[in-house]
Amino acid sequence: MCKPSSPPMRVLLSKQSLSLSKDHGPLDMPSVSLTVAIVVLVLFALEHLVVRPALENMKDLHPILEIEINRFIIARHIGVSFVSCVAVSMVGLLGRQHMSDLLESFFSFGKKNTMVLNREGFERRLFEFRQEGSLVLLLFLGYQMKNLYDSYVWDDGPEFIFHHVLAATAAFGGLNPGCSQYYAIFYMGISEISTGVLVLLANFDPDLGVQGLEDVLPITRVVIGLVFVVAFIICRTLLWPFTTYYFVNDVFNAVASDSILAKQHKKWLYIQVGTCAGLSVLQVLW
Fold it and tell me: What is the pTM of this model?
C-alpha cells in the first residue's frame, strides 16, 4: 500500500497553502522553514531597506535624528517589532471566532460560559488544525527568530534571549507536531496588541531606546504610556491568566485521559505549559 504523498514545499502565507496541510496533518518542516526564513528576510528588508533610509532622509528634521544609532534603534522598534506585532495581532483578531466560547465567557464575566471541558472540548482546542492559528504561529516564529538575532547583536541581556527562546519553542511546537493552535490565536496573536504599544514606548526608554526622545516628545510618550497601560491590563493582566486557566486545565485533562492524540502530543503539551509558565513569570518580573 502506498503512503499518502506529502504536499509540496511551499510558502505558508495564504489560506490555499495552509488548506493543504489541513488534509495532510501537521505542517511539513521544509515549508515551515521556508516560510519562517521569508518572514525573517522581510523583516530585515523592512528595517534596513525601508525604515532606515526613510529616517536617513528625515535626519534634518531634528538633531536627535542626526545621530545614526538613534535612527537604527527607531528602525528596529518600528520596522521589526511594531510591524510584527501588528501583523500577528491582526491575524489573531481575524481568527477570534475560533475561540469565541472563551472570549464570550470572559467578556460576559462568566454569565455565558460555553467552554466545553469534556474530551470533545479539549481535543478540539488542543489538536484541531486552524488556519489562523497556524498563520499566527508562522509569523510569530519568524518574528522571534529575528528578535533573537537582534537581542544578541544589540546585547539586550540574557532575559530577552531567554524570552525569545521560550516563545520560539512554544510556537514551533504549535506548528509541528501541531497542537494548541486554538490558544495560539490568543497567546501569539491577540495578546501581542499590548506588545505592539510597548515597542513604541521602548523608543523613549533611556537604556533600550533613544536618549532624550522623551524630552522632545513628552506628550506623545504620555499618550503611548496610557494606551499601553490599558492594553496591558486587558491583554496581560486579565485575559492572559483567564486563558491560561483553561489552557492548563485542557492539557492536564488531556494527558490524564486515554486520548490517542494526547498520548502522541504529551511531550509537547508539557513543553508548552512550561513555556507558558516561563513567559508568565517574565511578564510579572518586567
Answer: 0.93
Q: Is there a contact between 127 and 261 (Cβ–Cβ < 8 Å)? A: yes
pLDDT, tens only, 246-273? 999 999 999 999 999 999 999 999 999 9
HSE-CB of 48 using CA atoms within 13 angstroms: 8
CA angle 33, 36, 40 (to 5 degrees): 135
Task: Tell me the C-alpha distance between 185 and 50, whole Å.
Answer: 29
Q: Determine contact, residues 229/197, Cβ cutoff 8 Å.
A: no
Examine residue 241 and say whether the peptide bond preceding it is cis (omega within 30 degrees of 0): no
Q: Which CA distances in Å does 281 have to 8, 159, 232, 240, 241?
A: 40, 11, 15, 12, 12
Map grid coordinates 539586550 to a residue.
156
